[in-house]
Structure formats: structure tokens, C-alpha cells
Amino acid sequence: MAHQISFNEKTGQHSFFSVQKAWHGLGQIVKDYPTSKEALVYAGLDYTVEKRPLFTYDTVNFNANKDTDIVIPEVDVPNYFATMRTDTDQVLGLVGRDYKIVQNVDAFTFFDSIVGGDGILYETAGALGRAGERIFVTAKLPDYIKVGKDDLIEKYIFLTTSHDGSGSITAAFTPVRVVCANTLSMALNNCSNVVKIRHTESAQERLKQAHKIMGISNTLSIQLESIFNQWTKVRITDKQVLRLIQEAMSPSKEVLENIRNGADDQLSTVFKNVCENAFMYAMSSPTQQTDTTKGTLFGAYNAVTGYFQNVKAYKAQEDKLDSILSGTGLMRSQTAFKLCEQFNKHGGDALQN
Question: Minimal CB count within 10 Å: which of 108, 172, 282, 350?
Fold first, then answer.
């Protein structure tokens, strides 16, 4: 089950909804953007989670006659609890005493509070894992980042949280270039586009402070529109595009040094193939032949981000999501962003040092 979408045996439904047909073809497909209450039901997330105490059996010190029906006494397990779905009584995970549950409905409350419920478009939501241990929600914000005359970048907010104690609540602002559904990761002034909240006593209250993530999206939107439009005016040669891709994709200082020293024979075949595939995407993809991308610094940046979104093969869709939002895809894209900033300031010399 590469998709990892949770299946509810009681309802006979996969816990997922989308306003467009998803690649895995599962869950509820709806024509119109739903309200938060509707989305919660469509995605099969209309369940609550409880912390329940743990216990074991005292079989060592119990010397009952085997011919009797005496029950072996229970022994409490202190400071640890099981998180459980109240609708199916499935165990989601084991957590500590201080772990605080954030219910699924709170995730949607977070989105609604951003703009008072107006303008938020719920696009996908669902639960992952055997019993729905992890949930996610994506919503589109109103307005666009406009690059050039007609290259539009939609503004999304993504939230994921787990009920098994494995991770924090994560909310991220994620711009997506409409023409190729290309997620644009960025690194602006050391400002992260991600907010992480631990499952502590203050988690629910902090989640209500939606203005923080909205402030991030507004600030980044303004900066990105200015930067990307500037990059569309900066010309870059094909040779420089390949070099920028190589440096952005470099997994280590050693590889980077080999690139800068021209020691191509020291580069692995796997690394060369990655760079070649990203370069071919830059040179041949129709989405890279627009006025804003062809032969421009903005196009070179999209070659890296577009590789992880549209070219690289992943074992599962969740692997792709993790890579783009928090893994290798994010790191390489942020490196590309910084290289493009340097190229904008210093031209080709930025790729020689």
C-alpha cells in the first residue's frame, strides 16, 4: 500500500478527500471546495482521540490455582498512555504523561481562523497509516504571486500532525507555480516558512495563533514577488544553468570541490544522472519555455525545484511530500535559492568561488 492512505473498515472508506482526482484514485472526490466541516467528514477525519492508561499483568507474583477462574491482577504502567480513536478503538501510538492531544477538528479551526473562514479553499485532507496515525490538510489562500505578465504562483498552507507521538504539529506556507504545479521552496533572510508546535499543554493555544503563519505567508509573498520578477530579467547561459544545478544538487563539500575543480571523473554516475535530468527538464519542459523562465535565472531556479516536483521518481507520494517540505528536496531547493541570489548580485562569478 504505497499510498499509505488509512482505510476505515467500519465505514469501508479510505480517509482522504480531494477536489481533483488524486493519483491513487482513492477517497472522496468532490467538485466544489468544501467548508471545514464538510472537509472533515469527506476526509474521514471526524473522529476524536483519547489518552488511555496502560497496564500489564502481574504473572510473576501471582500463584493462583490453575483450576480456578481467578483473574490475574493488573499492574499500571506509570507515566505512559495509549492514544486511541474513540470510533474504532484502534491504538494509534504510545505517548508520555505530558503529551497533549490536538484533535483533527483543531487543525481545521487553525485554517478557518487565518482569514475568518473567508477565502480559504480546502483542497485535500486525509489520514495516513494503518489506523490514521498521521493527518494532513492543504488549503489554498486567496490571491497570487504574479511573476511577469501571466506566470502565477498560488499560495498554499499545509498542516500535518500525528496522534502517535512521533512528531510535532507542522504548518508550512508553500507557494506553487500554477503552470507546472511546482512547489517553490525558499530561504528568505533566514526566515523559515515552517512553524512547528510540540504536543504540549500550550499546543492548542499556539495553534490558534494563526496570524503567525499568515504573517509569514504575507511577508514571503511580497518578497518572493519582487525577487522572482527580478530574476526573470537576469539572463543565464545553458552552461551556467548546468553549473548552478550541479552546485545546488551537491550532497557534500567533497562533491562541490570536485565540481569547482572540474574533476568530473570523480563524480558518481548517480549524481551525474540527477544533474542531467534536472538540466533536461530546464531545457525541454514546455513549462520552462515561457517568457519568465527560458534563459532566465528564474528558470534556472525552477529547474531544481521542478526536478523534485516533476521529474524525480519516489517510492510513494508521501516520500515526495516529505522530501519537498522537509527533506532533500527542500534543502537542495534552498541551496538553489541562495545560489540564484548570489548570481543576481555577482553574475557568473558567483559560480566560480
Answer: 350
